[in-house]
Every structure is written in structure tokens, then in C-alpha cells.
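Dock PMT; give full complex structure.
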Amino acid sequence: MTLLGKKIVLGITGSIAAYKAAYLCRALIKKGAEVQVVITPAGKEFITPVTLSALTRKPVVSDFFTANDGTWHSHVDLGLWADAMLIAPATAATVGKMANGIADNMLITTYLSMKAPVFIAPAMDLDMYAHPSTQANLDKLKAYGNRIIEPATGFLASALEGKGRMEEPDRIVEQMEAFFENQNQWAKKKILITAGPTYEKLDPVRYISNYSSGKMGFALAEVCAERGADVTLISGPVQLKTHHPRIHRIDVESAAEMHKAVSVYFPETDAAILCAAVADYRPASFSESKLKRKDNETMVLDLVANPDIAAGLGKMKKENQVLCGFALETENEFSNAEGKLRKKNLDFIVLNSLRDQGAGFQSDTNKISIIAADGEKADFPMKSKKEVAADIVDFLFHHFVSSRA
Ligand code: PMT
């Protein structure tokens, strides 16, 4: 019953599979959803608005305004109204426009204004689907957080056979139900995430730090919030913005400040994901005035150890709390990560290595392995940080939270 009362914008585009949209409407409505159809001009060549409005009991939206009386159809209002948007069938042209923000019809403007999760069910000929430009557009849409409902393999309207058929309406509805089911479980969860670097001040103009941009931690925060969790994001100094209203962001500068903030929020959290690159050491003393260059050939800095935030949480962790750390390695990756997993009493650790080009600091991509305290291991290919975050969150959910909920 996860679709009961859900408001769904159903986007229909110009594909022969548009005839299945009538069945899709009925299947969604039978599950208790309220459906508002937005159709492209090409979509109307394949299925009539009369059929769709009879099924949904709502006028079908296609143009920006009604020609006879000038009534304005607000794509912004639709973006705020919906609990989900489903574009089925999605042609190669629509996929391309969505990926590149080409807002030349009501469906694309509605998509660009959408606050709710978006599902895309492509439908096209096998060669169009396999073309690198279509695949690149779909990858881009995935990286933006959209969910692609993979097309099925079978007979196509072109009389060819292959991958490109829109998934069957009942399977699409099942995938949406599974999504909302998952979201319901997440809705009760409080997640704490650390992100970014820390700055350890030496004097008023200098500090010790590292190259962390915060991208990995912020992607994790966005994904957890999109799943319905309440997120507290404790971030070191970064240039990033948070977008989701369920993210409560706390900015800190040093490891000591991060430690203090984490200690306040951890007792109330269900799971903590420690993605921050925390400086292990800080200058032993802070000079109130700028340190002056001397004639010496060398300069010795005294450093003292910062608190190990992860290890501290590992000690205070309760039975029902999940603790996930990260390990950024340059050599002996697995043994180092496993050592940190045990030493810090983590439930699992996400390993990324600077030996993998495109992984680790600053890039928009990452390549990870996950090692769990119970011995389970999972390796993932290079993906966008948003997709990597989704893999970590799936692992967190299935491996721990669902078994303890
Ligand atoms: O921010 P980006 O540019 O996107 O880059 C992402 C990232 C490379 C920073 C991220 O993927 C990552 O690997 N973060 C952890 C980096 C790190 O500091 O790893 P570590 O092996 O030194 O630390 C192990 C774990 O202990 C980490 O969970 C860390 O947050 C934690 N730690 C470390 C030191 C300390 N004093 N306190 C801690 O809690």
C-alpha cells in the first residue's frame, strides 16, 4: 500500500510505448495514487489526452497555457505538488533534453522544477538505446539522482529484437512501490555525516589541512535525505552548498570543533558515516601574530595528536547504532582499512585508494570497496560520487538497519 495517497506526475512522450501509459495510469490509480498526466506534443500523436483524462479524472497538461482562455499551467506548482514524477515512456530525445536542461516543452520544465524523486522508463529502438550519446545522457541523469527503470529486452516496434522496450507497467509500479517502502523505513532514521577537511591553525594566516572537497560526504547527505532520513551534516571548510531541506548542516573548522559537534549529535543518531578527512595532528601552539621568516635553513613544527573522532564513537556506540568509517589509502589498502575497522570498532569501512585515478579527493567520481566487521566485502566500479553514495547507503540499509528495525 506504499502508493496509497501518493501524488504522481506521469510524463508521457512520443513513443509507440505510449499506448501502455493508459494501463500504467490505471495500475497506479488502483494502488491508490493520484495521477496527473503531462504529455509532450509528440506523445499526443500516440495516445489521446481524452483517454488519459478519463482514466485520471483530471485534465491532461500539455501546453504552458490553455489557448482559449489563457489559463496558465504552472510547472513549478506541479513540481511542489508531486511525491514522485514518472516519465514513461521516455524517448531518446526527452532523455537528451532532460540531461541537458533543454526546457522547450511543459514536460521538461516540470522535470526541471521537480522537488520529488524522478523515475525514468526509457523506450526506444535497440541501437538508439545502445548509442554512446543515449548512454551518456542516462549516466548524467543517474548522477543527478534520477532513477532509471531499465528497459526490457524483446521485440521492438522496428521489428528488431533487443534491449529498448519500455519495462512493463506492472514492473514499473513494483519498482516505485519498493522505492516508497524503502523511504518509509528511512523516514524514522537519524543519520550523522562528517565531511570535508579540517583546518588546524598555525597563526592568523596559515593552517595545516588536506585536499578534501566535501563532495563525497555531501553526496552521502543528499542521498540519505532523499531516502527520507533526517541528516545532520557536520562539515569542515568547503565550497559546497546543501540542497535538501532534511539536511541540518553544521560548519566547523578544526578537528576539535568537529569532535565537539559530533559528540553532541551522536547519542541521538541511528547511524554515523564518517567521511571527513580529519587532520590527525595540529600545531602544538597557535601564534596570535604571523610567524616571521627567520634566517634558519629549516623550521621545526611541534604537532600534537587530535582526538580520533571515529575511535571515540566506536567506544560509545550502543548496540542499535551503526558506525561507518572511511579509509583513504595509498598502499596495502585492504590490510590498512581492515586495521582501521577493528581499531576504531566500526561496523563497516569504505575503502578508497589514491592509486585509482578518479578516486578519492576532489574528483566527481570515486571507486570503493566496503568491508564489514562480519567479514562481508563488496567491490564497486568507478561511479559518480552520488551513485557511490547510493551504494553505501544501500549497504548500510540492507546490512544493518533493516535487520535491526
Ligand atoms: O571530500 P572529497 O574531495 O570528496 O574526498 C573524499 C574523501 C577522499 C575525503 C573520502 O572519500 C575519504 O576517504 N574520507 C576519509 C579520509 C581519511 O581521513 O581517512 P583516514 O584513513 O585518515 O581515517 C579513517 C577514518 O577515521 C575516517 O572515517 C575518518 O573520518 C576518521 N578519523 C580520522 C582521523 C581522526 N582524527 N578522526 C577521525 O574520525
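Observed: The chain has two domains: 7-184, 188-404.
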